[in-house]
Amino acid sequence: MREREDEVSAAAPSGATGGSPTSAAPEGRTAPPGGPGGTPESPPGVGPGRLAIGIDVGGTGIKAAIVDIDTGELRTARVRIRTPQPSTPRRCIEAMEGLVRKLTDTLPLDPSAPVGVGIPGVAIDGTILTATNIDKGWLGFAAGDAIAKALQRPVTIINDADAAGLAELQFGAGRGHSGTVLVITLGTGIGTALFRNGHLVPNTELGHIEIRGRDAESRASATARIRRKLSWVKWAGDVDEFLHRIDTLLWPDLIIVGGGVSKEAEKFLHRITVRPPLVTAQLRNEAGIVGAAMRAGRMAATSATDLPALATQPGQTPAGEARQTPAGEAPPQPV
Ligand code: BGC
Known about the structure:
The chain is an alpha/beta fold. The chain folds into two domains: 51-164 and 285-324, Nucleotidyltransferase, domain 5 (2-Layer Sandwich); 177-281, Nucleotidyltransferase, domain 5, CATH 3.30.420. The chain contains seven helices and 16 strands. The protein has helices at 89-106, 143-151, 160-171, 216-220, 222-227, 232-250, 287-302, and strands at residues 51-57, 61-68, 73-74, 79-82, 115-119, 123-124, 127-128, 155-159, 180-186, 190-196, 199-201, 210-211, 214-215, 254-258, 278-280, 323-324. Strands 1, 2, 3, 4, 5, 8 and 16 form a seven-stranded mixed β-sheet that branches. Strands 11-10-9-14-15 form a five-stranded mixed β-sheet. Helix 1 packs across helix 2 (143-151) and helix 3 (160-171) packs across helix 7 (287-302). It starts with 50 loop residues before the first strand and ends in an 11-residue tail after the last strand. The protein binds beta-D-glucopyranose. Beta-D-glucopyranose (BGC) binds next to helix 3 and strand 10.
């Protein structure tokens, strides 16, 4: 089946999880340059390879890597910097510039290789419309344009949970699952990514539904557990209540729990009593990076000509999305 924007294919691509770690990249599923995906005609890291940079802006850290968007493998080590405080757009963009410089020093990339940035807020046409856990300076900020200008690369902005969801559906716990799948990230906030038969419904903000008169996120995020000094048992009860409410609204076929806390799943997951099957995310702290890169790669591809693998027409931009090209530059070539 041809792949469309916001769709993930049900079948797993070969090599999706088989990257052999290198000494430069001790954690994760990093593939060495020249590994899966690299061909003599299109050596990884140069020319029109299927590589994109993924950046995940979180409440505590900004993380980035160069990603092979066909396999979901990282081609560099993950680089990370603490989220500046205050986390104003200007300071975060400076941090992104540093991270991208580090990455491209390690693995030189064609200037047309796109960048996807996951932001913890509603992102429509490259502009950020909510900012619960980042500086309010992001509200109404045309992030896509500004980041493209700073990085001198095509940039696509996506909500951070949507990015993580795309990666999980394509390469992780959601692989091969159709129906209604909800990915929930429990971190500084609660992020949600909703899929129906592999199609993403972008910018769902279910972490902000009201439970017992309060924003669900303020009771059940991973940070809320620490702030409220709750035991795992008590906190699991709040998460359970949140999931039951979500179930009565969406009746999902599968719930995937991600975010930082998913690595401690054994401390709370067995206490969750909600109806749908519940699994933990597989890509852990790489999901946001991988999904942002995937989205950037697809957006670049949909605006380029002659791409038989895509269902969207050349030049067509999927609804609700905008890709920013640095001012005065020609659109990028296909990745
Ligand atoms: C934001 C979401 C974000 C989530 C996880 C929430 O506070 O509103 O947009 O996805 O945190 O970062």
